[in-house]
């Protein structure tokens, strides 16, 4: 039996941003998310950031990498834009599950 660890899971939420929200969309790569979190739990945590459009998860041993397209809140967008370094560190949500996640800001895209 083959291992499922190289499978990439993808979730498309169906959320379509309005005209104002398009400027707040970013592609973000989130590291060090425990593999114990399900896609539903990750989406629940991301509601603090705002509206998740899609996400892809790839397991890497005890952690997974999550690539997401998200419309950030004005607060999180200001944090994201104000970052000077290549890594933005912030809470993913429930700090009992994930204390913080590194986000690769160089992969951001504006539409």
What would you say this structure looks like, in words?
With 111 residues, the protein is mainly β. It has one domain (24-107): Alpha-Beta Plaits (2-Layer Sandwich), CATH 3.30.70. It is built from two helices and six strands, in the order ββαββαββ. The protein has helices spanning 39-46, 74-81, and strands at 8-12, 25-34, 50-60, 63-72, 87-90, 101-104. Strands 1-3-4-2-6-5 form a six-stranded antiparallel beta sheet. Strand 3 (50-60) and strand 4 form a beta hairpin. Mean pLDDT is 75; it is low at 95-102 and 105-111.
Helix coverage percent of residues? Answer: 10-25%
Strand content: 35-45%
CATH domain class: Alpha Beta
Instruction: Name the poorly predicted regions.
Output: 95-102, 105-111
Categorize the overall geometry: globular
Number of strands: 6
For the report, how would you describe the main beta sheet? 6 strands, antiparallel
CATH architecture: 2-Layer Sandwich
> Which whole number gives the mean pLDDT?
75
Rg (CA only): 14 Å
Distance between the termini: 42 Å
Structural class: mainly beta
The arrangement of helices and strands along the chain is EEHEEHEE
Domain count, please report it. 1
Strand order of the largest sheet: 1-3-4-2-6-5
Give the helix tally.
Answer: 2
What is the CATH topology?
Answer: Alpha-Beta Plaits
